[in-house]
Amino acid sequence: MKLVLLLVVALVLSALLWVRLSPNDSAAWNTDPLTATRTTQGGWLVRPQGGDAAATPVAMPAAEMLAILDRIALDTPRTTRLSGSVAEGRITYITRSALLGFPDFTTVSAIALPDGTQPVLFARQRFGDGDMGVNRARVEDWLARLATALAP
């Protein structure tokens, strides 16, 4: 019985270590939110058409808006830049859950408009089929913080 219990504990710890330490292929996660397709349940996609929501355009160049969103993302707890940059026009962040370190990925880009920029974001989880709404909440928070940063 002790052996079975030890094996179960070892298996659970191994799974948790894999979630925490597994490599994340930046090329696989730094996908264009305009053409991305979902592969699991959960996540949140903000784009003008075919998404869960559309963000309000902002009256500034894309690079300026992405720079603000970059600061907002990096101010989010447990969030780091995985790939991309403001200069490249697309950035993917990894945000880990507080307790077990499950990774979620959020890719941010922009569509240039004649009088401003349309934010485009795609947030999704790596493991599991559902995200309990955390990706939607993160994207909505980032967009709200962007609106606050732009308010006069």
Record the SSE blueprint.
Elements: H1 2-21, H2 26-29, E1 44-46, H3 62-74, E2 79-85, E3 90-96, E4 103-113, E5 116-125, H4 134-150
Antiparallel strand pairs: 1-5, 2-3, 3-4, 4-5
Helix pairs in contact: 3-4
Q: What this model shows, in words?
A:
The protein has one domain (25-150): Alpha-D-Glucose-1,6-Bisphosphate, Chain A, domain 4 (2-Layer Sandwich). The longest helix has 20 residues, at 2-21. The chain has a five-stranded antiparallel beta sheet with strand order 1-5-4-3-2. By secondary structure, the chain is α+β, with helices and mostly antiparallel strands. It has helices at 2-21, 26-29, 62-74, 134-150; strands at residues 44-46, 79-85, 90-96, 103-113, 116-125.
What distinguishing features does this structure have?
five-stranded antiparallel sheet; single chain; alpha+beta; 152 residues; Alpha-D-Glucose-1,6-Bisphosphate, Chain A, domain 4
Whole-number count of domains = 1
Percentage of residues in helical conformation: 25-40%
Q: H/E order of the elements?
A: HHEHEEEEH
User: Radius of gyration from the CA trace?
Assistant: 17 Å
Q: Round the mean pLDDT to the nearest integer and report it.
A: 91
Total number of β-strand segments?
Answer: 5
Shape: elongated
CATH architecture: 2-Layer Sandwich
In this structure, how is the largest beta sheet organized? 5 strands, antiparallel
Supply the number of helical segments: 4
* Name of the CATH class: Alpha Beta
Instruction: State the low-pLDDT regions, or none.
Output: none
Portion in beta strands: 25-35%
Widest β-sheet, arrangement of strands: 1-5-4-3-2
CATH level 3 topology: Alpha-D-Glucose-1,6-Bisphosphate, Chain A, domain 4
